[in-house]
Write a structure and sequence with these properties.
The chain is mainly β. The protein has 1 helix and 10 strands, in the order H-E-E-E-E-E-E-E-E-E-E. The C terminus is likely disordered. InterPro entries: TTC5_OB, TTC5_OB_sf.
Length: about 140
């Protein structure tokens, strides 16, 4: 798992405050998300790492929001290179799930976030381009 150096991460977290909020959305940190769909909410975060494993989909990223809270982003329907280490990611209408389990004698708790559509992910201020989508959207024939 490749990670950002902590000094660089701190600078990236501070820069998240400079990202403009979509006027139709309210900005929130991941700790304020409730379980389920968070309509009209956007979360701005920086990518700490891509969680590598053997399956091709979905992709899992460890992100950090503007308060320094880490969370997992689960993404279906994109190519691996669409989101990279250090990218600034804005999630529109995020769906949050609190994960709480024990495995191997250890207790794990974290928030997992996803969006319904790839259109709900903005990377470095830009919507994901169609060449980053791994699926064809039938509504755009």
């Amino acid at each position: 798992m490749t990670r950002i150096r902590e000094t660089s991460l701190h600078a990236q977290i501070q820069s998240l405050a400079n990202i403009d909020v979509n006027p139709l959305y309210n900005r929130a940190i991941v700790d304020l998300l409730h379980d389920g769909l968070n309509k009209q909410i956007e979360v701005v975060a920086t990518v700490r790492c891509l969680v590598k494993y053997d399956n091709q989909a979905p992709f899992y990223y460890m992100l950090c929001d503007s308060d320094g809270n880490s969370f997992v982003l689960t993404v279906f329907g994109i190519q691996k290179e669409a989101i990279k280490l250090g990218d600034q990611v804005t999630l529109l209408d995020p769906i949050c799930k609190f994960v709480d389990f024990e495995w191997g004698g250890k207790h794990y708790q974290f928030k997992s976030v996803r969006v319904y559509f790839v259109k709900g992910i903005v990377v470095n201020g830009n919507p994901l381009r169609s060449n980053h989508s791994s699926l064809l959207d039938a509504s755009h024939n």
